[in-house]
Amino acid sequence: MVSYAFALILLLTLVAYFAARRQASVVGRSVGASMHSRPTYHGFNAAIWACAPPLIIVLVWVLFQDAVINRMILGLFDADRIAAMSSAERSLLISEIRQLAAGRQFGTPGEDLLAAAQTLNGWTWLAHVSMVVIVGVIGALGLVLGVRAIAPRYRARHSVELSLNIFMVFCSFVAVFTTIGIIASLVFESIQFFMRVPASEFFFGTRWEPQIPIRADQVAGSGAFGAIPVFVGTFVIATIAMVFAVPIGLMSAVYLTEYADVRVRSVVKPLLEILAGVPTVVYGFFAVLIVAPLIRDFGTGLGLSVAPRSALAAGGVMAIMLIPFISSLSDDALAAVPRALREGSYAMGATKGETIRKVLLPAALPGIMGGILLALSRAIGETMIVVMAAGLIASMNINPLDSVTTVTVQIVTLLIGDTAFDNPKTLSAFALGLMLFIITLFLNVIALSIVRKYREKY
Amino acid sequence: MNMLTEASIEQKLSPMKNEPRIKMRGDKVTVHYGEKQALFGVDLQIPEHQVTALIGPSGCGKSTFLRCLNRMNDTIDGCRVGGKVTLDQEDVYDPKIDVVELRARVGMVFQKPNPFPKSIYENIAYGPRIHGLTKSKAEMDEVVEKSLRKAAIWDEVKDRLSESGTGLSGGQQQRLCIARAIAVSPEVILMDEPCSALDPIATAKVEELIDELRQNYTIVIVTHSMQQAARVSQRTAMFHIGYLVEEGPTDKMFTNPDDKRTQDYITGRFG
């Protein structure tokens, strides 16, 4: 039914556009050359009039329809009985009725439920039909108003401009609201978690053993939710990755912009950027099957004991993944530094290296920092490579040759398989996610303020 | 050479007593940008402690010639320079010449003021620092002050040396760039239309400055303004589509040029 509504809106929009354009050219011809806006603008304007209000109505309708109908269904039952139910029981009842209405019947439901399901179907149908009708009426009204508004001095150009502005504001707010929604979901689940596990244990505990006893008398069943070891693991791997990725990425960017000749650049730059397109799973098995054994053999050769899954392997491979982020953004930032600054420096008798170190890099700092930050966020949030290559046991150590686990790996393992949203094991994933989010946000803020302080604005 | 006394400067400046020494010399200089030839065998002498103006219509090769003098053309891909350019009889295109040292001796000021996005102090200190000209902070302070004074901008910026050079006005920025060039004590200063981005008042200040700088430096200036060439230069060279048309004392060039094209250009009939 909703698709009928959309089809209707599309139809009205097209009709409005062509009718208004036609009408505008007729009016234009009759008054000579003094039309304020060209016929196309009148067409767009009428089209917007015909489609924007019904679209908004459909969106709101779809958002609230189910909630309203649910409430009405509950009204069918005995008020005292409903009042006595908890909210979970109420939603269970509703979903049972909805299942019945959709024709999925389990066991023998009560007569009242079957009746309710039938009523529900009737209401849903009514709601859809009335939605289509209302949309049609409003759209047609908009169409008529839009076409009738056409007059020589009517400012359709500005009106279209305004509608576009509003649309752009809406688009940018979609991202903002999504972010808020993500934070909210993390926060609510985290609150649930902290109601079960004390915050002091989570923030300061040094043991991470997120298991939950199934039976009360189970041996070693009590879990420990100290997040420090997990964050240490993330920190170790991200540090290793950045230690390799930043110099390599930055140096390759400097080489490509300042030294490489055009032919080398045109080959090497796309090749570097291919690295960004390799799926992280592929990096993951590259790390496990090739890099980790290599590091292990090498370490054994030196007389070191290396775990089969080491932080070094995961971090090193992650660094390869990050190189294109840093090099590509730094490359753009360096290339954007005006030629005049380079020439000014060369004319002072500076060598190429001096010019790069003292003039180009400081001037390109904001862009370079942007690249590094993006890479750091990726390093902290990267999951697949570490799931495959780093290991699962949370241990408090910073030895890069040992196996470590990271926040993202733990979140994955916590949420795989049976999840129950009433025990701390599952909920701890959200607390970890929230912490991770706050940390990356914090890093971003710090880095941006550093950039603002030290940037050299050309 | 830098230790000239006032008297010897007078002597050098007075063409009556003896001809000024030739500081730089271009000998059959040709320049190709890729396939395109931009200069065709230019012979030009730059006398010491004088201002030599290069004039001519756009695209005539005057900037190209200027950039040959400190090998700034090296930074352009596909640019080839032929012939010979000498500084104090030394061939500047000799492989033995260190281009970095050459540019310290032959400084340059560009058409658009291009201060580094650093503080005013750091802009001036940049050159002395990379060439290791000073040993202490105090010495550097002195160099910075002296350069800014010589560029007639000290009084305007002395209280805000730590502010960014890009925050100055266009005219101040250009004088800052001149101060920056002076800071490494060059022998020759090349100026590529230094006033074209400036308003008349800032232009007047820079022109005044050029006239003062002539005492200590040899100056070559590219300009599109005939009045400017007449005001600041002692010698003028006229370029046209890659050829040197004629050159001579500015007075003569502006009153009684040998070549018809020079006369037409100066009087505004073409260009």
Helix-strand blueprint:
The complex is a heterodimer of chains A (458) and B (271).
Chain A: H1 2-31, H2 39-76, H3 79-84, H4 87-101, H5 111-148, H6 156-196, H7 199-204, E1 208-209, E2 224-225, H8 228-259, H9 262-277, H10 280-301, H11 311-335, H12 339-347, H13 352-381, H14 384-389, H15 407-415, H16 424-454
Antiparallel strand pairs in A: 1-2
Helix pairs in contact in A: 1-2, 1-5, 2-5, 2-6, 4-5, 6-16, 8-11, 8-13, 9-11, 10-11, 11-13, 12-13, 13-16, 15-16
Chain B: H1 6-13, E1 22-33, E2 36-47, E3 51-55, H2 62-69, E4 79-87, E5 90-91, H3 99-105, E6 106-109, H4 120-130, H5 137-150, H6 154-157, H7 170-182, E7 188-192, H8 200-213, E8 218-222, H9 226-232, E9 235-240, E10 243-249, H10 250-255, H11 260-266
Parallel strand pairs in B: 3-8, 3-9, 6-7, 7-8
Antiparallel strand pairs in B: 1-2, 1-4, 4-5, 9-10
Helix pairs in contact in B: 4-5, 4-7, 5-7, 7-8
Walk me through what this model shows.
The complex is a heterodimer of chains A (458) and B (271). Chain A has 458 residues and is mainly alpha-helical. Chain A folds into two domains: 2-154, no CATH class; 224-454, MetI-like (MetI-like fold). Helices cover 77% and strands 1% of the residues of chain A. Chain A has helices at 2-31, 39-76, 79-84, 87-101, 111-148, 156-196, 199-204, 228-259, 262-277, 280-301, 311-335, 339-347, 352-381, 384-389, 407-415, 424-454, and strands at 208-209, 224-225. Chain A has a two-stranded antiparallel sheet with strand order 1-2. Chain A is flat. In chain A, 35% of the residues are buried. The mean pLDDT of chain A is 87. Chain B is an alpha/beta fold and 271 residues long. Chain B has a domain at 21-114 and 188-266: P-loop containing nucleotide triphosphate hydrolases (Rossmann fold), CATH 3.40.50. Chain B has helices at 6-13, 62-69, 99-105, 120-130, 137-150, 154-157, 170-182, 200-213, 226-232, 250-255, 260-266, and strands at residues 22-33, 36-47, 51-55, 79-87, 90-91, 106-109, 188-192, 218-222, 235-240, 243-249. A six-stranded mixed β-sheet of chain B has the order 6-7-8-3-9-10, with helices on both faces. In chain B, strands 2-1-4-5 form a four-stranded antiparallel β-sheet, covered by helices on one side. In chain B, a hairpin with a 2-residue loop joins strand 9 (235-240) and strand 10 (243-249). Chain A binds chain B through residues 261-262, 338, 340-351, 354, 358-359, 362-363, 456-458, and chain B through 70, 72, 75, 77, 100-104, 107-108, 110, 112, 114-118, 126-127, 130-131, 164, 166, 177, 180-181, 184. Chain A: It is found in: Cell inner membrane; Cell membrane. Chain A: Belongs to the binding-protein-dependent transport system permease family. CysTW subfamily. Chain A: Residues 231-447 form the ABC transmembrane type-1 domain.
